[in-house]
Amino acid sequence: MKYDIKDIGLAKEGALRIEWANESMPVLNRIRKRFEQEKPLNGIRVGACLHVTTETASLMQTLKAGGAQPFVCASNPLSTQDEAAASLVKNDKIPVFAIKGEDDKTYYRHIHAVLNARPHYTMDDGADLVSTLHSERQDLIEHVLGGTEETTTGVIRLKSMAGDGVLQYPIIAVNDAKTKHFFDNRYGTGQSTVDGIVRATNRLLAGAYFVVCGYGWCGRGLAMRARGMGANVIVTEIDAVPALEAVMDGFTVMPMAKAARIGDFFCTVTGNVNVVRKAHFAVMKDGAIISNSGHFNVELDLKGLKSLTRSVKKMRPFAEQHLLNNGKRINLLGDGRLINLAAAEGHPSSVMDMSFANQALSIEYMVKGKHSLKKDVYPVPESIDRKIAKEKLAAMGVAIDRLTSEQKKYLASWTLGT
Ligand code: ADE
Q1: 173 and 160 in contact (C-beta within 8 Å)?
Q2: Distance between CA atoms of 386 and 210, rounded to whole angstroms?
Q3: Helices and strands in the chain: count of H runs, count of E runs
Q4: Phi and psi of 77, rounded to 5°?
Q5: Does position 417 have pLDDT exceeding 90, yes or no?
Q6: Is the distance from CB of 312 to CB of 283 less than 8 angstroms?
Q7: 370-397 per-position pLDDT tens digit
Q8: Mutation to probe ligand 1, out of 49, 54, 56, 75 (largest number of atoms < 8 A from CB)
Q9: pLDDT of 152-196, one tens digit each?
């Protein structure tokens, strides 16, 4: 079996960490048990380009339990947990091509290694696998029957491919399921981003000015959690509706040009490029800490930062201090890559449980073939989303009410008023 990982000797530690993650993934565990019995994915090769974490390992084990053979590479050069990768190779016989800290060349070599397996389905997080397949490996596309996409940035890219008429097979946008983005993007990003910033810096958030750039689902979660740690949270936005929501959620909203002068911490979660730029770096306070938790490392204008920088000193594993020509220091975390996976461990298992249940059930839905999906991007079927919510609540021991027949009638009637 071919693979490329850091150290197979890490497999024992990885297995324990995966077991730990599994203990908080009850919905995925149920799916795995059913898959073991029914083998709905028999003979299917899945090419997965995901953050190679313990939670991803649980998902890969689930696909394998269903009869599939997964091939795995990383969806970000800095997000791989080398222990999880080692355990997948050694204990589950799943080929993994991922090493934490790999350079861009290796990152793409690993994507090609997964494509070499001629997957029937792609499982992507950010759409690098799908875009490489469509641009450089078109000879393989005829084998591919469908795919799934995990994240907002990937869904935007794939919709643009579909809009341009180049997407060659159907993709289910797992990100857009309610049981994914309401929870993973909000509570997962909220907690893991604060975790990453704290692990990278060990600085106190209480009383600090914390600037959250973007108030989508991730920004909402991050702002909420930074406030929970006692920070004064400032939100920047380009869209009036989320900006208004941030104001009414009790945050201070202002343009980046103004926030740049005030913030102690900055974190981008917009999905867009150069959100914090040269002009902003130039007016930041001495010691400002900048980070990104959006999918790609494009949100901080690192070229702009470099052009203002006199010298760079690596202070801690994920903190690089830039001494600017104006004499001030700016601390860049995790090279501007998603700080929650670079310096911490990504979203906690309990939230990935729902995201990855959506992944497993969406692949099963496609494999079963009782659909008429074309070359486009589709939502997760409502029935899957609802089932996951129900199972998660049940696993948490939470019961809810049912509509009475009188209430059902009332909701269905237009004649009943005052
Ligand atoms: N994305 C964010 N957190 C993650 C995790 N723990 N595993 C896989 N993908 C993730």
Answers
A1: no
A2: 36
A3: 18, 15
A4: -65, -20
A5: no
A6: no
A7: 778 999 999 999 999 999 999 999 999 9
A8: 56
A9: 999 999 999 999 999 999 999 999 999 999 999 999 999 999 999
Domains for the chain: give ranges and CATH numbers.
8-180+348-395 (3.40.50.1480), 187-342 (3.40.50.720)
**Residue 372: per-residue pLDDT:** 86
Closest CA to 31 of 53, 1, 60, 11: 60
Number of Cβ within 10 Å of residue 109's Cβ equals 14
Whose alpha carbon is nearest atom 9 of ligand 1? 51
Q: Give the burial class of 369: count Cβ atoms within 10 A of its Cβ; 0-12 exposed, 13-18 middle, 19 or more buried.
A: exposed
Do the Cβ atoms of 7 and 96 come closer than 8 Å? no
Residue type, position 33, single letter: K
Is residue 314 classed exposed, middle or buried when 0-12, 13-18 and 19+ CB atoms within 10 A define those classes? Answer: exposed
Q: Is the pLDDT of residue 416 over 90?
A: no
CA distance 68 to 140: 19
Give the CB-side neighbour count of residue 287, counting CA atoms within 13 A.
Answer: 5
Give residue-wise pLDDT tens across range 30-62: 999 999 999 999 999 999 999 999 999 999 999
- CB-based contacts of 116: which residues, under 8 Å, 6+ apart? none
Query: 84: CA distance to ligand 1 center in Å?
Result: 12
Residue written as token pair 């089932």: 387
Nearest residue to 48 via CA among 102, 133, 114: 114
Neighbour tally for 151: CB within 10 Å: 27
Question: Which H or E run includes 291?
Answer: strand 288-292
Average pLDDT, the chain: 97
Q: For ligand 1, which residues put their CB under 6 angstroms from it?
A: 50-51, 53, 55-56, 188, 341, 346-347, 352
- The closest-lying atom of ligand 1 relative to the alpha carbon of residue 338 is 2
Position 89 scores a pLDDT of 98
User: Which residue's alpha carbon is at the smallest distance from atom 8 of ligand 1?
Assistant: 51
Q: What is d(CA 25, CA 19) in angstroms, rounded to the nearest whole number?
A: 10
